[in-house]
Amino acid sequence: MAPLRGPTDANYSYSQSRMHLLSVNRQLLTVNCLLWSVVCLTNLWRESCHKFCAFSFKHQPLTSDREKFFTVSFHWNLLKPLKMHMKRLSLLLFVLPLFTHAQTRIHATLFGGFTNYYGDLQDKPLTLDQSNLAIGAGLKYDLTDHMAVRSGFMYGKISADDKRNKPSLQFRNLNFQSKVFEWNLLAEYTLFDLKEKKISPYAFAGLAIFHFNPYTYDSLGNKFFLKPLSTEGQGLAQYPDRSPYKLTQFAIPFGVGVKFKVNENVVLGYEFGLRKTFTDYLDDISKTYVDQTALMNAKGPKAVELAYRAGELRNGDPNYPADRSVRGGEKYKDWYYFSGVSLSIGINTHNKALNRPGKSSVNCPVF
Fold this sequence. Notes:
By secondary structure, the protein is an alpha+beta fold. Helices cover about 30% and strands about 30% of the residues. An eight-stranded antiparallel barrel has the order 1-2-3-4-5-8-9-10. Strands 6-7 form a two-stranded antiparallel ribbon. Mean pLDDT is about 80; it is low at about 50-80, about 95-105 and about 350-365.
């Protein structure tokens, strides 16, 4: 004979069904908010790039005063679309926590480590040689015990010098540096449930938007941004196939790591993340040298000086190369990557969804 179900059992079953429906609804609303955030930030990026590109074609700073004006104007043009979307983004940041307050975990994430790049001035695909410090911060939202969505900002610096390149390229004597600002949206998969195990490997992939701006120093120590100099003829009438490259672009981030649960709210990890870019100009080197006279007339003597620097070496050739002589390798695009330690801290806790039968009350999730 089946046991009779008491009032407490009936309440428990009803509350379980209600909890399940609320959880599904909350997941759908969260996904909707995340898609909304992608749309907002994509529109922001598109409008910022449009304004910046329109501005950069009109202004080509070559002096320090003009560089300052160029930088201030760029940031002002970048902030205009941000101001337009501020209301939408503010509403998103206010609404999203309401949908994810219960039944899930939201984490604040921090990153500290190194950044490097792979391109014409760095022949080692993965190395700490010529690497620089990097930092990052963001948020992570657990969809399940294995799947999560995370978003954050990364900052690092990439640099390389032919003096530390392979011997066959050291005669070129080129170098560059660039700060890299990145916003990313990633899906993360953790192999093991950290409620059951202390350590688990994980993988991630997604989409990123990054900004770079290569620069170098001349023989007197003066700083010059390289894009306005058109060192490979970008934007010159004699080279219609070479358009000026954009300083804000998309990248595809992906990588792996291992995480260790310190306690219920703190997870420590180490990760390595590659960034596949769609530009070959992180280092301002891609194709060939251009005609010296054409570059001199269009951009001035400083452009010629920084496009070919072999003459600065003790035994270097002072003669500028012929037009279309190989300067870089355009077959492969440039990459950059981050490696370091991550820290994840839970900023809200799981609600006790239901009390067991026999308890005096049932706790339901609250918005």
